[in-house]
Amino acid sequence: xxxxxxxxxxxxxxxxxxxxxxxxxxxxxxxxxxxxxxxxxxxxxxxxxxxxxxxxxxxxxxxxxxxxxxxxxxxxxxxxxxxxxxxxxxxxxxxxxxxxxxxxxxxxxxxxxxxxxxxxxxxxxxxxxxxxxxxxxxxxxxxxxxxxxxxxxxxxxxxxxxxxxxxxxxxxxxxxxxxxxxxxxxxxxxxxxxxxxxxxxxxxxxxxxxxxxxxxxxxxxxxxxxxxxxxxxxxxxxxxxxxxxxxxxxxxxxxxxxxxxxxxxxxxxxxxxxxxxxxxxxxxxxxxxxxxxxxxxxxxxxxxxxxxxxxxxxxxxxxxxxxxxxxxxxxxxxxxxxxxxxxxxxxxxxxxxxxxxxxxxxxxxxxxxxxxxxxxxxxxxxxxxxxxxxxxxxxxxxxxxxxxxxxxxxxxxxxxxxxxxxxxxxxxxxxxxxxxxxxxxx
Length: 442
Prior knowledge:
Elements: E1 2-3, H1 25-31, E2 36-37, H2 51-54, E3 67-74, E4 78-85, E5 88-94, H3 118-122, H4 137-140, H5 154-162, H6 173-185, E6 194-199, H7 207-219, E7 226-230, H8 250-255, H9 263-267, E8 271-272, E9 277-280, H10 286-289, H11 294-307, E10 310-314, H12 322-330, E11 335-339, H13 342-357, H14 361-365, E12 368-372, H15 383-391, E13 396-400, H16 404-407, H17 419-434
Parallel strand pairs: 6-10, 6-11, 7-9, 7-10, 11-12, 12-13
Antiparallel strand pairs: 1-2, 3-4, 4-5, 8-9
């Protein structure tokens, strides 16, 4: 501590400083130093530690110079973190990460119902009752007593006959391909009818023709019943594609719904062609056609689902009509029809866009586009480019070739169609059958 003291003028000048006696008053004043320094040792101040600092604990171990984790826990499960920033310590409270629970074991898949193979039954895969589909001829008839089927094809049949049925080369390649396609079309369904709408936003692209071809291809192979319903509220022409056997329409089905007690009653309201395809016509009176709405379609669809396994619906061009909403709600698969011109392909693509925007994206991804090459402008358009466009949006594309019988717009005879036309229709039917669920709850 430094203390300064000025000598008052009243004090005598004769003073001895540091053992030196000055000669005079002026000499004495000049001899006094301006300041005096005195070193005093004071006790160190005692600092009390605040309570919030007492919760922070440091350990005398090697630490990361960037972040130090304290071994203790502060508060309700909050970990104290000491951060080193420019040689200064900062205490930060962080919430600890929650411990992840161990994942529960995945339960095994339930045993599938309705197994169709004998091997699955013998292996114990299916513990339930056998279905009727397992009563096959291969299982029930003794091999020695089983009649051997004659091979199909020119050369296999010739060898089979020349050797008195001793040499069986099997079917020819073309016959095997045909039977394989028949097996795809005849895919069995369980748990109710399957609904397949055929639609597009543009008229005149052959939507009704495609519906007829698809129905004929299905009905000519399948053992169950197939029906095509004309749900066009603007006077459809589906009934004009087959030889009409009745004047009844969808309006008669709605009016007689309460009195229809079986398939015999329902069959009087439909027309059947040579392939066993049943056609239900739309209203012919333009004043009544607009009255066919969503509720009427549901009545017709419920009755059709009782007696048919596959229900095709020839939709109108108005995709915002209430009938279209009821049709799409029941759909198991979709067939979009496109022509071979630029505007027809664009409108078909816009149909897919509308369906995706209204919650039917899954149906679009599993849909099939049928390109009708009988429309105008097909020869000038690159069909492979149209197919490449739709291939990026749907499951499959089928090209329907030009046929004079189809272009005439009259009654279609399945046997009179060109072989390429029948083959394309059969391929379309196989793709539709493969895209629908084989079994489901009723």
